[in-house]
Write a structure and sequence with these properties.
With 253 residues, this protein is an alpha/beta fold. It has a single domain, classed as Alpha-Beta Barrel (TIM Barrel), CATH 3.20.20.70. It has 6 helices and 9 strands. It is globular, with a radius of gyration of 18 Å. 38% of the residues are buried.
Length: 253
Amino acid sequence: MHPGVPDAREAAERAPFGVPTHPMPRARPKIEPRLVPTADSVVVREIYLSLQGESSHAGRLCTFIRLTGCHLRCTYCDSEFAFTGGERRRIPDLLREVAGLRCSLVELTGGEPLLQPGVYPLMQALLDDGYEVMLETSGAIDIRLVPTGVRKIVDFKSPSSGECDRNDLRILDRMVAHDELKLVLGSREDYEWARTLVTEQHLAERPFETLVSTVFGKLHPRELAEWVIADRLPVRMQLQQHKYIWEPEARGV
């Protein structure tokens, strides 16, 4: 190794998510997923047992593994605390902690879990141990490397998020029947964007389900319901249940 040049392990510790730590410019090329054969750990912000608050699995008991780091800065983000911090954990140690929580459903969330190469062997290890595994991902990183058995909840970003240009439409062609596309809407403009997406991408003909919900405090669910009914839009409308069960700013489900 040349003097002053870090080896691969040291470099991974300095930039564990595969993206720069300084602010990133908009309209950059899509980030591609990465498999690293030596990856055996992830940086975890928190791990806890709670209830699913979103997706068609809402209300189910679930173990959440929240990974640190995100390259997006959505205006309505409710997990900014996950941008930094956390602890690097080896996969066998995480499996033992998950087993101790005694829940058959496990979700990987963030942040953006797919920024960390170690998430892929972690998901596979959970599947191998017999867990039902879900992945909450932003729709800004291709899902082609995600293990087949993982249920992917893809959260495409609406215009009011400020990150709509990051959506990777290739993902729609990779989603299967047990996956779900989630559209969180905060305005009439967001709804019209969603309606166009549903129509132009023929989402009603895809094998997965499309879910719509509202940004808490920005758009009343009744308004969204009226629009969906008026347009006979082929989507499933949902409430973000955790916003109504706990305080809106509370960390949890």
